[in-house]
Amino acid sequence: MSQQHLAAPADETAVATVAQHRDWWRGAVIYQVYPRSFADSNGDGMGDLAGVRARLPYLRDLGVDAVWLSPFYASPQADAGYDVADYRAVDPMFGNLLDADALIRDAHGLGLRIIVDLVPNHSSDQHEWFKRALAEGPGSPLRERYHFRPGKGKKGELPPNDWESIFGGPAWTRVTEPDGTPGEWYLHLFAPEQPDFNWEHPAVGDEFRSILRFWLDMGVDGFRIDVAHGLVKAEGLPDLGDHDQLKLLGNDVMPFFDQDGVHEVYRQWRTVLDEYAGDRIFVAEAWTPTVERTAHYVRPDELHQAFNFQYLSTDWDADELRVVIDRTLDAMRPVGAPATWVLSNHDVTRHATRFANPPGLGTQIRTEGDRELGLRRARAATLLMLALPGSAYLYQGEELGLPDVVDLPDEVRQDPAYFRGAGQDGFRDGCRVPIPWTRTGSSYGFGTGGSWLPQPANWGELSVEAQTGDPASTLELYRAALAARREHPSLGAGESLEWLTAPEGVLAFRRGEFVCVANTTTAPVTVPSHGRVLLASGEVTVDGTEATLPADTTAWWTTA
Ligand code: NOJ
Fold this sequence. Notes:
Blueprint: H1 12-18, E1 29-33, H2 49-54, H3 56-62, E2 66-69, E3 73-74, E4 86-90, H4 97-109, E5 113-118, H5 128-136, E6 148-149, E7 172-176, E8 182-187, H6 202-217, E9 222-225, H7 245-248, H8 262-274, E10 281-284, H9 291-295, E11 305-306, H10 309-312, H11 318-332, E12 340-342, H12 351-354, H13 371-386, E13 391-395, H14 416-420, H15 464-467, H16 474-487, E14 498-499, E15 506-511, E16 514-519, E17 525-528, E18 532-536, E19 541-543, E20 546-549, E21 553-558
Parallel strand pairs: 1-2, 1-13, 2-5, 5-9, 9-10, 10-11, 12-13
Antiparallel strand pairs: 3-4, 6-8, 7-8, 14-15, 15-16, 16-21, 17-20, 18-21, 19-20
Helix pairs in contact: 1-4, 6-8, 13-16
Bound molecules: 1-deoxynojirimycin (NOJ).
């Protein structure tokens, strides 16, 4: 299917270099690169793989262990690459397979691992299978690989069931048959350009196991699985009935999400992955009602990690954070999987903007709020996250303290959810604005041309260049925190923590020789000092056996 070919297999020696630490992923810090917004090597305003490759030393120096790349496959970009037309080809907008190969080799040479995004719930409507399914008409065996159904109503004019797309509107689109008449409907839980695969069909499973092998042979260290909770649908595709889908999403098991049958897929995938040397991993993007259900995805014979969206969705509130931390650790312990922690990604408002706004607004926020407050809290939240046992995910630009860009004009927006409206998402462009590398330049060092989304005028002050060497900067805080995690691997290791008594609104816990204290209140607090302050997100003053933390500040101590 792919038109691109590789000259040589991935470099086994380089794979061996990074493969030395078994179980590296249990405490790993994994950095998400959103390729179109990271670095543009050819000045076309769109980030690309060569751009990422050129910036790998920055990521190595930042101190992360691995890089997760959002999709760069051949795609019409109806959903920024989460609509894949060819799973074995790189979209020309991002480069080609040789660029991917060079990127993987260089990363390994620098001791960084590469995780790629796999999109198995749906393809693009421009995927060969779907195009043929449409062209061949009703009864085509290719239609069985997707969910085609006749419509309801006298003339089939109504969708087959009442499911709604996550991006808003019905989850079904009616096709025009080859003879020009209105015909069957097909299911798309996301945009109409993203038809859902039918995972009951054996060809779908065969194809994805083959795709896994293709990228494993290329040398990747793992996969982030898109919509991992969505592959299997309840038998008969039953109506939701009176239930409000928006309220159910994330709070209950739905007929199209988190069905038990999905776990068989992952047990099969695990056997494929385990054939390969090098301690490679799967991480699930599984939005489930509870962290306990998320734990099902990381049972010993399934996936390795799952994103902790319950944590991401928690406000900056000590009591709520403590509950979600405890529940996560309690849920992961019995299955032997590491907890994961995440504050930002390409689908939610950046945490510097979430925390700049009042609590309770969720993860899609349209207002700038109090930027100074948001940044102070974001820095504190990051240090808290990086002191927790398990693996942490960072989203490009958060190390610069970037806010969401909330005032993008409608005409530049590209998020399909924005145009379909009424869905749970819709304002994701704001966290996808290309990142600033330099103080000046047409796109602040993102590239030599422009940038596919306009960058705000103050972007240069937030750039890597502007922050490097400034000990008060957010970038240097991240560098110091990640250096400390490297120097003291026990910071991210293990599966438990010991809570210490703390004033209202303050979280304090011990992990071996480390103590972390997070003041989530708007006033300074005085707490016991626990040895030497290793790092703090604000100005901590120590007076004998006591220390004072300003409002919204986290500090790490070491007693060693
Ligand atoms: C989750 C991805 O993170 C998001 O960006 C995408 O729109 C949906 N899955 C559909 O693939």
